[in-house]
Amino acid sequence: MSCCATPLPADAETVAAASREEMLLASRDLGNGLRQTDLAAPGVHCAACIHTIESGLARLAGVAHVRVNLSTRRVAVKWRGEAPPDLLVAMARLGYPAHLFETDADVRDPEFSRLIRALAVAGFCSMNIMILSVSVWSGAEPETRAAFHWISAALALPCLLYAGRVFFASAWSALRRGRTNMDVPISIGITLAFGLSLYDTVHDGPHAYFEAATSLIFFLLIGRTLEHVMRERARAAVRGLMRLAPRGATVLRADGSRDYLPVNEIEPGMRIALTAGERVPVDGVVEDGVSDLDCAIVTGESAPSSAEPGAAVRAGTLNLSGPLTITASAKAADSFLAEMVRLMEAAEGGRARYRRIADRAAALYSPVVHATALLTFLGWMAASGDWHRSITIAIAVLIITCPCALGLAVPIVQVVASRRLFESGIMVKDGSAIERMAEIDAVAFDKTGTLTLGRPRLVNGATIAPGDLEIAAEIARLSSHPLSRTIATAAEPAGGLALSEVREHPGLGIEARLNGRLYRLGRAEWALAGGPTGRNEDGGTVLGCDGNLLARFAFEETLRPQARTTIAALRGDGLEITLLSGDTPAAVHATAAGLGIKAVSASLMPAQKVERLAAMASRGRKVLMVGDGLNDAPALAAAHVSMAPASAADIGRNAADFVFLRDGLDAVPRALTVARRAGRLVRQNFALAVLYNAIALPIAVAGHVTPLIAALAMSLSSILVVANALRLDARPTGRRSPPRSQRAQDLALAWKQGE
């Protein structure tokens, strides 16, 4: 929608000023004499706001670059010099009071509550005024008509003063600084319609058009509230990443003492003690201890990785099984997790270009319509000299060209499409994603948890001796490792096995004694150590007895249902298919070969996935990213549009535009089909709205339409748009959607699996 800079009190510059020491401490050193300071600007709403802030701050001495993130309302300023520029004072002068951006803030913006209250007031007033107007239009007696007009005026006044102040404050803020925005013509139209209606009410006129002013406020507030919801959803994904970082860590001092320090106070070189179950606070190197780490945030793979002295660890990874001592190699602000947060915020900021296009289109519409109404008024004044008739015709022009049909053209189709997708087990989190889905010409898949279910499957269980398989399964039941859980399900529990001296070795495997013999289940080089078959073993999972090989276990990942048919369907549709994974090259290429995917990239870090998507975008590709892991969140946010299964991590679901609730990967082509149909209907709706205005506007300008007829025509155009959108809900004969109870069960089950 439009911008909404906030008027400032007289002492705003004094309030906005902060000590240079505080600004310097809040900045981040980027190297080469360049520093960055992040500000929070709650008043940022649209492209005009972004342009005003970026151009205004860029003029300050020392400022090298300014970028505004519309989703998070974050202003990133890069500057050079010994002291920071007066950024907060400059922001206050521009009309956008700001404060230092706090990355750990988790407070809901109070503007959402204000918008909801304003929307409720506008909806209540406009609907009731419309009901009263129907009675007046139906031929009410003069006394009844006058009473209804006064009641309508009484209802319209609080709507204008309370709900309309969102637009009036923005318009005034722009005008007092010599600028204009979309809210200026909107405010003029609202005031004009209310003023003439009040004049006619006072003079017992036959008609009043309070519903025009209040309905316009109501529809515009719907759009602004939906925008705010989208921004909050973008912030939720970033906050989910932030929650992976611990608030502090235990630091080991040189004198043997221990201190618990906030994570922002940890410096490179500090020694940190981690117990099992704690997350790594900053990037570092293992100094002492052996453990398993859950590195899903880095690689996207569910299998734990071994951590031993000398191994690098990343912030946000989870220490699973043993105590570790690590040496910090970076500050929290420069850690892997902080980089992921910045990647997501940058991606969300880039996505704002779609809203900016909509802003420019909407901003163009209102000035044209109001200019037409003004010219109509002046023309009729020159022709007839009757100011009341002239302004009545001008209001009819405003009403008949009210952007209700244009405003409904997209959202009504999105609502119907969202319903259709939900009936197919697909949740739509962002209505604009349906439009972006229809534009894709390439699809990038993650592997584990996306093309596969992320659950390993034992493929050679039938070739292993039953006795050896029973022993392995009994030992595996004592471990929580994903491969152990798979082995444990391969054989029925053997009640006669009395295991003793059970011990799990993090990163290696688990051992136990049975009948005086030592059995080991785990990595081959460890399980067979010291035995005759152990010298040449360099990988794989085996069962060993006193160093002798008893059984070797082969695993493969289970493909997600309909994976092959989905890839074939997308390829047949002319889409470019790419596989981007953090897993090992061998595992990735094996999956790609089974699905016939040629373009493959393995062992990718999250930032590298984003780079691959950026490279595809630079070639003109509009990419759908399908992923599920923590490490996929920046890529999901950076892609043109994104999907994730309900089994994905919370962050992945938050970052994705679509979430499919069932196991089948056929949700991808199904969503694409619905999105393309929705795109066609949106274009048809725009054509209907434009055709309506092309026919109605000349008739209204010619004076052949009263405000009453104009209101009816405006309603008819909206009905046509809605009826056309409902065509998307028509189903081919013989096909039925699942019953509502089944869809509810699918939703509950899939979301529970995701947790």
Task: Summarize the entry for a quick read.
The protein is an alpha+beta fold. Helix content is 50%, strand content 17%. The strands form six sheets. The protein has a seven-stranded mixed β-sheet, sandwiched between helices.
* CATH topology call of the largest domain: Rossmann fold
CATH class of the largest domain: Alpha Beta
Helix content: 40-55%
| Total beta-strand segments | 28
Shape: elongated
> Mean pLDDT, rounded to whole units?
78
Separation, N- and C-terminal Cα atoms: 36 Å
Rg result: 32 Å
Segments where pLDDT lies below 50 for 5+ residues? 1-18, 347-359, 732-755
CATH architecture of the largest domain: 3-Layer(aba) Sandwich
**Largest beta sheet, briefly?**
7 strands, mixed
State the domain count.
5
Count of alpha/pi helices: 28
Strand content bin: 15-25%
CATH superfamily of the largest domain: HAD superfamily/HAD-like
**If strands are numbered along the chain, what order do they take across the biggest sheet?**
15-28-27-26-16-24-25
GO cellular component, one term: plasma membrane
Subcellular location: Cell membrane
Family: Belongs to the cation transport ATPase (P-type) (TC 3.A.3) family. Type IB subfamily.
GO molecular function, one term: ATP hydrolysis activity
